[in-house]
Design goal:
This protein has a three-stranded mixed beta sheet with strand order 2-1-3. With 321 residues, the chain is mostly helical.
Amino acid sequence: MESTQGDNTSSTDFTFMGLFNRKDISVLLFVIISIIFFTALMANGVMIFLIRTDSCLHTPMYFLLSHLSFIDMMYISTIVPKMLVDYLLGQSTISFLGCTAQHFLYLTLVGAEFFLLGLMAYDHYVTICNPLRYAVLMSRRVCWMIIAGSWFGGSLDGFLLTPITMCFPFCNSREINHFFCEAPAVLKLAGADTALYETVMYVCCVLMLLIPFSVVIASYAKILTTVHHMSSGEGRKKAFATCSSHMIVVTLFYGAAMYTYMLPHSYHRPDQDKVFSVFYTILTPMLNPLIYSLRNKDVTGALKTALGRIKGTQRVSGDAF
């Protein structure tokens, strides 16, 4: 298998060292990541379907959630399918063009999600802290501006950083000690001084990570203050539970990304980098629909209605025969 791969490898191809390099746990990791991947696709796909088809979910919050689900489906699909197929085929290479495309899509999608999560926290803030002005502050026009702004920010990051990352001369081995073409791992192969580029990337990360994360923290701090003064004990308990679950997922996402892109190189180790990347590239796309939506009564009600329609259709079809 290895010799075949070597014969088919171009001099411009990169080789992933990947997640499955430990034979004693490689099968277990493959099964776990496969389950996470298909769960993420199914959960996000169900969310998009329910939000599009159920009129009760035609609200600004669910409109934003449907786009988050779309980004998550695209996001995990740029990384995981190739990793799983390569494992099954005994391969670990990616072409220069493939690596460039993966790098661009990854940066664009993760950037869009960074901004969208921050702006969704603002939506939650308006819902709880300023409900009387919600229709004005979260109008359809504002929602589309949030979506457009998120995609613009992510695309700008992708178009700015991808050409610079991939134009460096790379060392002959071209072995990426990672499971996908993430910028810090690719830059370790660069045969030129990358200090200026790393400074630019750091500034981009401050804009794309710290600012949205600060908006999230400020929004939820205000929400929790408002919730604390609620007269209803049951409502207060429910709001605290919802906010805490949201904050756990958001902190996991932003925190892992901050570790990867903002921590000095001296604190990084390849194995740790892979683990942190798994948190925000593989786990988060699965957790987002489960935490944000499928635990919500409106969504579970819409799901029951949809399942009822399917059963009704099957019953009618059965009676016809």
